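May I ask for an example protein's residues together with how it folds?

___
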Amino acid sequence: MRYSYAVDTDGGEDAFLDLFTEDAVLIGTRGHRTGTEAVRELSRTVTDRKGFQARHVITNVLIEGNDNEARVRAYFVEYYAYSDLLPPKLMRPSELIYVGTFDCTAVKIGSKWKFSRRVVHVDAP
Protein backbone atom coordinates (compact mmCIF):
# COMPACT_ATOMS: atom_id res chain seq x y z
CA MET A 1 0.00 0.00 0.00
CA ARG A 2 2.96 2.34 0.57
CA TYR A 3 3.64 2.09 -3.17
CA SER A 4 0.14 3.32 -4.01
CA TYR A 5 0.35 6.26 -1.65
CA ALA A 6 3.84 7.23 -2.83
CA VAL A 7 2.66 7.30 -6.45
CA ASP A 8 -0.95 8.40 -6.15
CA THR A 9 -0.48 11.20 -3.65
CA ASP A 10 2.93 12.21 -5.02
CA GLY A 11 4.77 11.44 -1.82
CA GLY A 12 7.91 12.58 -3.59
CA GLU A 13 10.98 10.91 -4.95
CA ASP A 14 12.39 10.08 -1.51
CA ALA A 15 9.21 8.24 -0.49
CA PHE A 16 9.32 6.28 -3.74
CA LEU A 17 13.03 5.43 -3.45
CA ASP A 18 12.46 4.28 0.13
CA LEU A 19 10.21 1.49 -1.17
CA PHE A 20 13.08 -0.32 -2.93
CA THR A 21 16.48 -1.81 -2.13
CA GLU A 22 19.55 -0.24 -3.75
CA ASP A 23 19.87 -3.21 -6.14
CA ALA A 24 16.15 -3.59 -6.87
CA VAL A 25 15.15 -5.27 -10.13
CA LEU A 26 12.14 -3.74 -11.91
CA ILE A 27 10.42 -5.61 -14.73
CA GLY A 28 7.31 -4.28 -16.41
CA THR A 29 5.80 -2.10 -19.09
CA ARG A 30 8.82 0.19 -19.07
CA GLY A 31 11.35 -2.61 -19.56
CA HIS A 32 13.87 -4.32 -17.31
CA ARG A 33 15.79 -2.00 -14.96
CA THR A 34 18.11 -2.49 -12.01
CA GLY A 35 19.38 -0.29 -9.18
CA THR A 36 18.72 3.05 -7.53
CA GLU A 37 19.02 5.15 -10.69
CA ALA A 38 16.48 2.92 -12.44
CA VAL A 39 14.09 3.35 -9.49
CA ARG A 40 14.71 7.11 -9.54
CA GLU A 41 13.90 7.22 -13.28
CA LEU A 42 10.72 5.19 -12.71
CA SER A 43 9.76 7.54 -9.89
CA ARG A 44 10.00 10.53 -12.19
CA THR A 45 7.97 8.74 -14.85
CA VAL A 46 5.11 7.61 -12.61
CA THR A 47 4.84 10.84 -10.62
CA ASP A 48 5.13 13.30 -13.53
CA ARG A 49 1.45 14.11 -13.72
CA LYS A 50 -0.08 17.22 -15.14
CA GLY A 51 -3.83 17.54 -14.89
CA PHE A 52 -4.58 14.15 -13.32
CA GLN A 53 -4.05 11.98 -10.28
CA ALA A 54 -3.31 8.27 -10.52
CA ARG A 55 -5.41 5.99 -8.35
CA HIS A 56 -4.25 2.43 -7.76
CA VAL A 57 -6.73 -0.12 -6.47
CA ILE A 58 -4.82 -3.15 -5.18
CA THR A 59 -6.70 -6.33 -4.31
CA ASN A 60 -6.24 -10.04 -3.58
CA VAL A 61 -2.93 -9.43 -1.85
CA LEU A 62 -1.10 -12.66 -1.05
CA ILE A 63 2.03 -12.51 1.12
CA GLU A 64 4.08 -15.66 1.70
CA GLY A 65 7.48 -15.85 3.30
CA ASN A 66 9.39 -15.66 6.53
CA ASP A 67 10.71 -12.97 8.89
CA ASN A 68 13.27 -11.68 6.38
CA GLU A 69 11.91 -12.25 2.87
CA ALA A 70 8.46 -12.49 1.35
CA ARG A 71 6.79 -12.92 -2.00
CA VAL A 72 3.99 -10.39 -2.47
CA ARG A 73 1.43 -10.93 -5.21
CA ALA A 74 -1.64 -8.83 -5.97
CA TYR A 75 -4.07 -7.70 -8.64
CA PHE A 76 -4.26 -4.02 -9.47
CA VAL A 77 -6.44 -1.57 -11.35
CA GLU A 78 -5.12 1.90 -12.16
CA TYR A 79 -7.31 4.88 -12.98
CA TYR A 80 -6.49 8.46 -13.81
CA ALA A 81 -8.74 11.04 -12.16
CA TYR A 82 -8.54 14.25 -14.15
CA SER A 83 -8.52 17.59 -12.39
CA ASP A 84 -11.00 19.25 -14.76
CA LEU A 85 -14.35 19.46 -12.99
CA LEU A 86 -17.49 18.83 -15.01
CA PRO A 87 -20.43 21.10 -14.22
CA PRO A 88 -23.05 21.07 -12.89
CA LYS A 89 -22.17 18.35 -10.36
CA LEU A 90 -18.47 19.13 -10.04
CA MET A 91 -17.50 15.56 -10.83
CA ARG A 92 -14.00 14.74 -12.02
CA PRO A 93 -13.80 12.49 -15.05
CA SER A 94 -11.77 9.32 -14.63
CA GLU A 95 -10.36 6.77 -17.03
CA LEU A 96 -9.29 3.16 -16.62
CA ILE A 97 -5.61 2.91 -17.60
CA TYR A 98 -4.29 -0.53 -16.58
CA VAL A 99 -5.40 -3.82 -15.12
CA GLY A 100 -2.78 -6.35 -14.13
CA THR A 101 -0.75 -8.08 -11.45
CA PHE A 102 2.20 -7.33 -9.21
CA ASP A 103 4.62 -10.13 -8.34
CA CYS A 104 7.25 -8.84 -5.95
CA THR A 105 9.95 -9.97 -3.58
CA ALA A 106 10.29 -7.92 -0.41
CA VAL A 107 13.16 -8.09 2.04
CA LYS A 108 13.34 -6.74 5.55
CA ILE A 109 16.07 -4.14 6.05
CA GLY A 110 16.21 -3.02 9.65
CA SER A 111 12.58 -2.54 10.64
CA LYS A 112 11.33 -1.72 7.12
CA TRP A 113 10.21 -3.95 4.25
CA LYS A 114 11.52 -2.99 0.80
CA PHE A 115 11.04 -4.41 -2.67
CA SER A 116 14.11 -6.14 -4.09
CA ARG A 117 12.21 -7.30 -7.16
CA ARG A 118 9.03 -5.94 -8.72
CA VAL A 119 7.41 -7.54 -11.74
CA VAL A 120 4.33 -5.92 -13.27
CA HIS A 121 2.16 -7.79 -15.76
CA VAL A 122 -0.41 -5.67 -17.58
CA ASP A 123 -3.44 -7.35 -19.15
CA ALA A 124 -4.09 -6.55 -22.79
CA PRO A 125 -7.21 -4.41 -23.30
User: Anything to note?
Assistant: The longest strand covers residues 94-109. The mean pLDDT is 88. The beta strands are 20-28, 31-34, 52-65, 69-82, 94-109, 112-122. The CA atoms of residues 61 and 74 lie 4 Å apart.
